[in-house]
Amino acid sequence: MTSERGGPPAAPFLRLVRIGKTYPGVTALADVDLEVARGEVVGLIGENGAGKSTLMKVLGGVVAPDSGHIEIDGTVHRALTVPQSLAAGIAFVHQELNLFENLDVAANIFIGREPRWGGPLHLIDRQLLYRRTRPLLERLKVDFDARTPVATLSIAQRQMVEIAKALSLDARLIIMDEPTSSLTVAETERLLDVIAELQAQGVAVIYITHRLNEVKDCADRVVCLRDGVVAGALAHDEIAHAAMIRLMIGRDLKALYTPPGRQPATGLEVQGLRTVLFPDRAVDLEIRRGEILGLAGLIGSGRTELARALFGIDPPLAGAIRLDGEPITVRTPHHAIMRGIYLVPEDRKRSGVIVEFPVRCNVTLADLHDHSRAWLISGGRECATTERQKERLHIRTPSIESEVITLSGGNQQKVVLAKWLAMRPSVVIFDEPTRGIDVGAKSEIYAILRQLADAGVAILMISSDMEEVIGVSDRIAVMHEGRISGILENRDSFTETNVLELAVNSPARTAA
Amino acid sequence: MQKKDLGLLVLILVVGAITTALNPVFLSPVNLGNMANLVGLFGIFSIGIGVVIITGGIDLSVGSMFALIGVVFIDLMTNKGMAWELVLPLAIGLGICFGVIHGVLVTRFNMQPFVVTLCGLLIYRGAARYYMADATIGFGYAGGHETLEWLASGRSLGVPHTFIAFVAVAIVMGIVLHRSVFGRYLFAVGKNEEAARYSGIPTNLVIASAYVISGALAGLAAVFLAFYTYSIQPSAHGNFYELYGIAAAVLGGCSLRGGEGSIMGIALGTVLLQVLQNLVNLLGIPTSLNFAVMGTVILLGVLTDQQLQRRRARLLAVKAHQAKTLGAQPARA
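YS: structure for the whole thing
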């Protein structure tokens, strides 16, 4: 990808010097130094909770550091205010995009700063608004125009709107927080190209991500935070996957894969399944008991729709499903649950748990009849089950009566798992099981996946995280535009190239 | 009893004490009996509306249901001479029918509860007026329904039967809501319908059932109300009563966003509303100010409650943060 860098970097215009920030009981940042030069792309990596967000909040003027100082163009500040940060040309492109879907692109870019006619009504000068928007969009070479309603744009396009907004503010530094977490491969490449172009125009970028490949592709320099301190920095030619992982966790990541403990047996067989998204494409797939079947593919390739169809959220249009050789029909989630087919959904807070409910109510929600006598809930049984699951899955919560919203992402995910593992699973579908979860909790969840498989459960793991798909699966199925484009049976064939090729090209042959 | 309900109880006692201080008639047996009667009348259907609100919906139609079910009920009893044993279940059944229609429109056809029940409010009122050609209907002197009249408007040991019925309904619904599987489903659906569906809960059925419960209780309340007023003027009977129900539920801690509330709260909310009405009467405040007083108290009550909750949430957040950071320290070291 485009990452030719020439000459020594310019002198930094922004310096964070020995920044420290302590919250009651925890040191969020200690003596952190960071410099950014004109047109430089700095990759910022680190586990969740390493201090990345706090550092960025210092830059945005939202958090005042306890110690250290910030130099902008040689002027020393103890702390920044939000207007100072804006004036310094620091702009953010957030993970959750903050756009108004009901307005068009130009209105979003100039929201709150609309050019106005004079006069008492301060009417918006629409002509000028669009005239000012166009050159911004041209700089980014986007494929939509200033009058397009944001509601019709894809996530990648919306990101471009955010970047255009940053440019309209004369940004010298754009901070991108996990910009590619919802993008497809092609969109990610496009974004990396835009970053290179921004760089050529002299705009600096701080690129925060968990996806180390992207850092490798675009960053001039990588800075890694760990527990609030700079764990190390890598110059452009030192940036390598293993080196970054070592910095992030302070040790080499041991191989994720553990082999299955039993011979896979017939589990869930899917034949000719058609979903709403791709009514003319049929899916054939076998998920065996005792194995973890990874399901890779681009976003929009129909993976989530397959999961929803198998779980009865959107009943399939056609096709046959057999469990242990016996034909079954799944029209509602209730049917699926009766058969032991469970889904751990992608959007945890929306579909996985009721965050305002205590842990106990979430764990027993799908199986209340087993925790009741004559329709009346037995609190004792509920507590017993929940305590048992809490022990088994190491859910870190002060009490089983704590509201789920107070738990960390990893522990929330364990609550979803606890709900299903308290029952009798035959097939468990995991849709992005470790999204937004820190490294420690991730490996715990992988261990649970393997335990389940070894107990004879058929596991389907949908994931966009290549490392996870390759590292955890026994077999990998890849989806492309509504059909299975290939299945990798052999661990030797598990490479990013093989998976990507199937995800993008849909070749006729099945890679062996 | 939850903290919230306790606060409401204290408020009731304070308002009661002030009223008594200014006019001792407040505590006289006659006044208390009358209040209990009204609490019973309004409480029965307020519980139904509360259940709907817990699912995140709203029921605006009950006031008009009282008029329509009421005129049909009196007409069948007095003019058609049907036995009350038959007419009573018919009245409740009519309420259930309306509830089913609301439930189906909300769940199957994905219509907004506000729109569905607003149309219900208009349609039932219009139907009641048309049915009677806008004429008033009463029980008159026909007789033959003394048993039912005694059941609906009589007293045992000085306690109005409406109040006894209300307490019975409250206990049953309290158990259903706070102890049963269905009750847990109601709260789950109200808080996060999507997550409830992903847990295998038949969300549509649960939501529709809430409207059916509200309809059934409205049918029951319609009978009590008919005997309370003894005659029904179809254009005015039960006007605005749905608002009393919504007010009681909101005062009692039901969030219009769904997923929150308790039967105890709704019951106390109903009591508070009636105490306030009584206060207006006893203290010689012009009756025209009735609604204004009620509105003011609800506004202040909900405002205070929210401020207190926000403070509690902030404290909790600080505590959780401390616990998390303290817990994380040794693990990292």
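YS: worth flagging: Chain B has 13 helices and four strands.
IM: good catch. Also The domain at 3-289 of chain B is CATH 1.10.3470 (ABC transporter involved in vitamin B12 uptake, BtuC).
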